[in-house]
């Protein structure tokens, strides 16, 4: 099962802009690690609805420049509608093809909650390397597959989908996480293979609280731009969603909240100042 870029719609895009606080918080931490400064040129790959971009605008000031690219038209539209800065552009594009950006022209690139969706990661890294200035940095915040698969929301989802009527019908090898998700090791290997210097890798546990199980599945639907449970056969998907919600409800804590931890890899890599081999 591949990643579908045609399943998104206006409602999912609007919902994502409203309820993506957890991604936004991770993004501000990622940007802190990248030490973004006034006047820098920034490329946000998979910029979504532009929430993090609006935060970066304050950091780079009027002398910096910001380009956000994303393959989803509805999300690029929201980002452009909300943009108030003349030095900022959002456009349709994918990580694998940055052909419209000159070589060695960008100070800082980041992919916040994006790299696990990118199908051809080696090609994306070749492009990132090409467009980064010598000394330029790239930052990633992406789910830590090794931990998320055995804990929290994903673990509960997998448990439901490995029982009863789902047991024979669901092929986990076809899940987006399985096919495209990253572990800290696989990310470091990709970065090292691209010629970038790995400067920092950290896995951080982040606890999130939700009022209801429906809030959780709504977030996953918006965040996956319609790819949620795409490894479950169509006919079983509505039932699977409600069975997962019922299972999540069992984890309500004493204070009334549904609290789950998830693990995010934060990684920073840099293009050497001298490119000599
Ligand atoms: C969970 S959203 C994150 C959006 C944003 N970075 C944020 O922090 O809110 C994932 C985004 O990755 C984008 N995406 C998926 N495949 C991509 C690709 N190959 N290149 C660039 N972006 C991609 C999606 O369109 C989506 O907007």
From TrEMBL:
Keywords: Methyltransferase, Transferase, Ubiquinone
Signal peptide start-end: none
Methyltransferase type domain mapped to chain residues: 43-138
Residue stretches in coiled coil: none
Keyword Cell inner membrane recorded: no
Family listed: Belongs to the methyltransferase superfamily.
PANTHER family given in the database record: METHYLTRANSF_11 DOMAIN-CONTAINING PROTEIN, METHYLTRANSFERASE TYPE 11 DOMAIN-CONTAINING PROTEIN
Protein name, entry field: Ubiquinone/menaquinone biosynthesis C-methylase UbiE
Organism of provenance: Paenibacillus forsythiae
